[in-house]
Design brief:
64% of the residues lie in helices and 7% in strands. Keywords: Plasmid.
Length: 182
């Protein structure tokens, strides 16, 4: 259901779009928190059209390009999803799983794995910081931008994961009798 809501939200924010335009907008925003491939987006658009969440118009030009527009029913789906209660949220966290399994390695190898984990989170953080600057440059002062609060969550989470990986690596290095020099 969340891919559907993410697509509806992107249409609600940006306005009507072709499938290609919507996929590009999705890639530059929502995809940071809810990943989807273009091959997943197009079938979902077809389902949304069948249920009346979006309308579809031929863009003309003979290329079969279609323009999708969110309907009132689609906007109501967003409201219901955002404000509704969610009894269960599944969590898949590869860093967390790595935290479980890294202890199966010798401490020196485990420390190296966690230093690589720290580097991945550092790279992600740098990307998010660049994105924050880019969004700030395109945002009207005084109003929240589309995805602003999700970006803040991403920054906070990534900083925490980066620090966790560094702390874990440090502990493993201590156990292995090695020291890390940054």
């Amino acid at each position: 259901m969340s891919l559907r809501i993410a697509l509806l939200g992107t249409l609600a924010h940006h306005g009507p779009a072709s499938g290609y335009e919507l996929a590009k907008r999705f890639d530059a925003s929502v995809n940071f928190v809810w990943q989807a491939k273009h091959s997943q987006i197009y079938p979902e658009l077809a389902k949304m059209a069948q249920t009346g969440a979006v309308t579809v118009e031929d863009a003309g030009g003979g290329r079969g390009r279609k323009i999708y527009t969110i309907t009132d029913a689609g906007r109501e789906e967003i409201v219901q999803w955002v404000s509704g209660e969610d009894p269960y949220r599944s969590v898949r966290n590869e860093s967390g799983l790595r935290g479980f399994l890294v202890t199966l390695l010798p401490p020196d190898e485990a420390a190296a794995v966690m230093r690589a984990e720290e580097a991945r989170h550092t790279a992600s953080l740098n990307g998010l910081l660049w994105l924050k600057e880019d969004v700030a440059a395109r945002t009207t002062p005084g109003s929240p931008s589309f995805g602003q609060y999700a970006l803040d969550l991403g920054l906070r989470t990534t900083r925490m994961l980066q620090q966790w990986a560094a702390d874990t690596a440090e502990d493993l290095e201590r156990r292995a009798g090695t020291e890390h020099t940054p």
